[in-house]
Amino acid sequence: xxxxxxxxxxxxxxxxxxxxxxxxxxxxxxxxxxxxxxxxxxxxxxxxxxxxxxxxxxxxxxxxxxxxxxxxxxxxxxxxxxxxxxxxxxxxxxxxxxxxxxxxxxxxxxxxxxxxxxxxxxxxxxxxxxxxxxxxxxxxxxx
Length: 143
Hints:
There is one protein chain. The protein is mainly α. It has helices at residues 3-32, 42-75, 80-109, 115-131, 138-142. It is built from 5 helices and no strands. The chain is elongated and about 55 Å long.
């Protein structure tokens, strides 16, 4: 198994662990919380904005690092700096997607939001985790 394949397997394992943790994050508050209404106040909008800001920032940083890694790996398929940027870009994307789920947890626990409100964050987190699935860099897949 090559270095890039080993790193890809590690990233996929991290991705699946984060998907499981989102499901756990969605279930834990339901054990300890009391049913509440679904009123959207200013704090709820603030948390929503922070989650959106984190997801967009993670997307931009992820794209930048993956673009740099593609450029480096196009020149040399075993470029250590390119491989590291590829790995870090994927980890940052996965971490920021997980952060959206943590904002959902804050919505539910701290702001006493309704389940449907927090579920929006959990669903967005799962969509991002699946959308940002780590893939073999194109430059190294051809070689």
